[in-house]
Amino acid sequence: MAQMTMIQAITDALRTELKNDENVLVFGEDVGQNGGVFRATEGLQKEFGEDRVFDTPLAESGIGGLAIGLALEGYRPVPEIQFFGFVYEVIDSISGQMARMRYRSGGTKNAPITVRSPFGGGVHTPELHADSLEGLVAQQPGLKVVIPSTPYDAKGLLISSIRDNDPVIFLEHMKLYRSFRGEVPEGEYTIELGKADVKREGKDVTIVTYGAMVHASLKAAEELEKNGVDVEVIDLRTVSPIDIDTILESVKKTNRVVVVQEAQRQAGIAANVVSEIQERAILHLEAPVLRVTAPDTVYPFSEAENVWLPNYNDIIEKVNTVMNF
Q1: Mean pLDDT for the chain?
Q2: How far apart are the C-alpha atoms of 306 and 212, rounded to whole Å?
């Protein structure tokens, strides 16, 4: 086992798949010699050459179109959208083309494309860089949407995404890139897409979350334990499709649920989880399912983001509410 940051684990996954399959291509804005804004592709162009790791113009729509064409010719493109706030420039390629490829071709064509992109708040980025827009793509059938929270998960999930024959949106929270290290196997391994992970077992209340909010939830769980509340924390890892079976198994044990997301309340992941629980397990609930989210406003300028973003104190408050219902 090696100790890696999330960005190192992502680079390792890309290197693994570039070695394993000559049809894997990595491209995007500044991903070549510069290694990307966050150095996720650092050293890969030197190792694998400019034909397999290369820069594109500053045109997300062109990146999307190139990925589709390459996929139809038998390649496995791994394009990077420099920040996911720029996804609007390529949304037709993603939702209008990649997601529909298998259906519209009658199963004769695939779109084995893994779109990587950083997102998320807490690092004082400029406007349009930190937005949590996973709900925008998670509501599109035909796409898998993956959001790792640890270096171990990042490597295994990214390898699985690249090997998948359908399009995957692989979102990497910027705050997690270098904030801690974790054990990561040096060889190749995969983690099943669409499978949640119980990051902490408990018996009193379930927290369902993903991305950076996994760590806020684990911190809240530690504080709540001091007051005798035993919290189970589920990391969705894949937010589309959602692993409802793992969630329901936990709900039937704890009978209380709080769903946590960094995105605004009106964004879709938490709301979808809540509705699935209440449709499938309402008789197991001892309290309403509550949400911790950001407010329904545009993402603020960096001076105000720490006030705007949900944190572990907000999670503690909602857990206490469901415990005292």
Answers
A1: 97
A2: 14
**Which residue numbers are catalytic?**
129
User: Which pLDDT tens digit goes with each residue over 156-215?
Assistant: 999 999 999 999 999 999 999 999 999 999 999 999 999 999 999 999 999 999 999 999
CB 119 within 8 A of CB 174: yes
Rounded to an integer, what distance in angstroms lies between the CA atom of residue 55 and that of residue 161?
22
- Among residues 14, 38, 17, 4, the alpha carbon closest in space to that of 152 is found at 4
8 Å CB contact between 293 and 270 = yes
* Rg of the Cα atoms in the chain: 19
- Which token pair is 171? 């979102």
Tell me: pLDDT of 128 over 90. no
Under 8 Å between Cβ of 218 and 251: no
> In this structure, what token pair is assigned to residue 289?
């399912």
User: What are 272's two structure tokens?
Assistant: 């979808």
Distance CA 212, CA 199 (A): 13
Check: pTM over 0.85? Answer yes or no.
yes
Rounded distance, CA 263 to CA 117, Å?
Answer: 16
Closest CA to 133 of 180, 193, 173, 97: 173
Residue 137: which of 116, 164, 160 has the closest Cα?
116
